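Section 5: illustrative case.
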């Protein structure tokens, strides 16, 4: 049953036959939320269903039962005369309904009789979505994603916020980025609660602060102004009392909007820490202690608003001497995005010290058009195993958007679904190199009954594109300089891209073949939330962007080696980029606010202008 196989499923013989009508008895009014979707599924099988809390002689019964031991567990009994879903909580009933929906989709009108006993591996099962690298999703997109996550039995969503919120006391923060408002967060939280999802606030509070430190009047709060070319650098000065005052203001406006117990203050990658204005203090007490002292202040600020502080784990693992002194109520989010990365294997150091841990793999969608598919699946699978081994609190799959966020949500969805499966019942999940999961994904999410989209996803997510294709497309041909504005600017990769001529030829051939024969998406009966409805278009665009990157890399290498490139090839590439930009803009707008779309458009236009100069050069 996609994507989360139940813990125990026993066939009992016989079947429940769907009639033309079906009566569903709800345990409580809030059960309507998942049951409406079940009713839509039944309608697709010519079965008209109705539901109420006072349904007489019901065919399907939802019942609160205290003998179900896990608070999010459920019991599903499909018998020839009746179907029963029993759970100790409304959340358990919600998940039981999702499993019944999967049973209906798999078997149609003839439902085999089964007894299912099920519960999750982890208390926290979430997805972390970057909203701060230039792409801010619309509320419609986020509500659809929340419901899709809940259908996959995830119970937590975090939105990464650096500056994309309208702070009344600091109105310049977020200006020009299509920021969220308090009303937006209230609507998202209402949506999340309907689906038993916690909307957990996340706010950059030390590193990755460049978007605020670049604002006039905030630059001198930076640890090392001018670092990496940013006016205030990227990291707050932890010793400046004004830094804490600023965060006090931001927390006071942001945290009360959320009912979730947890708050993610991030704290990751403060690259300049101890290298600028706090250098003397770091030399005296050590960078690790300097970091922990500041984090303890954040912990007190969060506690003032009734929140339990969560913190990315990279810096405490860089300075393990501070681990014994971390407050007991602080949650470490240990992140690692490589299949066998170093921090993953060090999870036990935090757990052994008595601190709660959430393990955080990634989709590997960032800085990639089609994702690094095998890397993401291997990373998620291995990290989930690590989390189970050490009885961690949860699994949080992260999806980032570095350097302009040109990667699309639809391309990250398979990894998010895989993370959901690993968080619920990881021992039943197909291994990363087994196509079984992708076959289920394309069937149940994209409405692809014969698996024709599996090779598409694998081809577009070919690991050989790595990071270079994303950056090569936005690098000038005439010199090793990236184009684009501000946060959409990448890095120069063409001269040292780890891609041989044979690899380039093969990648170009497979992308060309795929572009010429891209499979059409059947009308999906399973995408009622609309999350996946654009996914195939996003894969088609990702394939074309990969193809353009391979061509561009070949042309640039020829040009820089003083070989002649025919004018017709520059003209064809110019036309290709114009069409790609148009489709990129269209698909961006279908899921997202304008935000920093203009930065990426500027990049496309700079590429076309360079080509025009090459065309005009004798």
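Designed sequence:
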């Amino acid at each position: 049953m996609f994507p989360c196989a139940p813990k125990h499923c026993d066939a009992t013989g016989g079947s429940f036959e769907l009639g033309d009508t079906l009566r569903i008895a709800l345990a409580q009014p809030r059960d309507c939320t998942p049951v409406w979707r079940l009713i839509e599924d039944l309608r697709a099988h010519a079965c008209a269903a109705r539901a109420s809390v006072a349904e007489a002689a019901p065919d399907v019964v939802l019942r609160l039962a205290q003998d179900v031991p896990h608070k999010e567990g459920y019991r599903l009994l499909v018998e020839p005369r009746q179907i029963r879903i029993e759970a100790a909580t409304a959340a358990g009933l919600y998940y039981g309904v999702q499993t019944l929906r999967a049973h209906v989709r798999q078997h149609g009108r003839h439902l085999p009789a089964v007894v299912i006993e099920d519960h999750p591996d982890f208390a926290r099962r979430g997805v972390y979505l970057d909203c701060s690298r230039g792409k801010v999703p619309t509320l419609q997109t986020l509500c659809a994603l929340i419901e899709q996550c809940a259908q996959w039995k995830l119970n937590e969503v975090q939105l990464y916020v650096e500056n994309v919120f309208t702070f009344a006391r600091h109105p310049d923060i977020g200006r020009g980025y299509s920021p969220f408002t308090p009303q937006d967060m209230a609507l998202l939280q209402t949506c999340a609660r309907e689906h038993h999802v916690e909307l957990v606030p996340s706010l950059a509070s030390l590193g990755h602060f460049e978007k605020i430190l670049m604002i006039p009047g905030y630059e001198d709060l930076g640890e090392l102004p001018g670092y990496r070319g940013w006016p205030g650098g990227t990291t707050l000065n932890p010793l400046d009392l004004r830094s804490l005052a600023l965060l006090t203001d931001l927390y006071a406006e942001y945290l009360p909007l959320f009912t979730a117990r947890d708050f993610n203050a991030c704290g990751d990658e403060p690259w300049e820490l101890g290298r600028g204005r706090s250098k003397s203090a770091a030399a005296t007490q050590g960078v690790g202690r300097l970091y922990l002292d500041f984090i303890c202040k954040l912990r007190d600020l969060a506690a003032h608003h009734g929140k339990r502080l969560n913190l990315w784990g990279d810096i405490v693992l860089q300075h393990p001497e501070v681990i014994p002194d971390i407050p007991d109520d602080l949650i470490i989010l240990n992140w690692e995005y490589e299949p066998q990365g170093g921090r993953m294997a060090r999870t036990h150091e935090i757990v052994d010290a008595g601190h709660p841990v959430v393990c955080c793999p990634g989709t590997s969608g960032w800085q990639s058009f089609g994702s690094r598919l095998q890397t993401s699946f291997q990373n998620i699978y291995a990290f989930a195993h690590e989390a189970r081994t050490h009885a961690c609190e949860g699994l949080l799959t992260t999806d980032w958007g570095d350097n302009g966020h040109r990667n699309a949500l639809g391309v990250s969805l398979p990894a998010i679904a895989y993370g959901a499966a690993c968080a619920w019942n990881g021992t039943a999940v197909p291994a990363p190199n087994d196509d079984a999961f992708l076959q289920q994904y394309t069937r149940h999410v994209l409405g692809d009954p014969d698996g024709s989209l599996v090779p598409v996803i694998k081809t577009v997510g070919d690991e050989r594109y790595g990071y270079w294709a994303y950056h090569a497309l936005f690098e000038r041909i005439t010199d090793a300089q990236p184009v684009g504005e501000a946060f959409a600017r990448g890095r120069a990769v063409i001269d040292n891209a780890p891609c041989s001529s044979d690899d380039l030829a093969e990648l170009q051939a497979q992308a060309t073949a795929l572009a010429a024969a891209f499979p059409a998406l059947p009308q999906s009966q399973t995408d009622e939330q609309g999350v996946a409805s654009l996914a195939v278009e996003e894969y088609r665009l990702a394939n074309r962007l990969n193809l353009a990157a391979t061509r561009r890399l070949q042309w640039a290498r020829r040009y820089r080696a003083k070989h002649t490139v025919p004018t017709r090839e520059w003209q064809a590439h110019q036309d290709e980029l114009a069409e790609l930009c148009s489709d990129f803009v269209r698909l961006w707008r279908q899921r997202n606010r304008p935000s920093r779309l203009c930065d990426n458009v500027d990049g496309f236009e700079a590429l076309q202008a360079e080509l025009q100069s090459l065309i005009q050069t004798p």
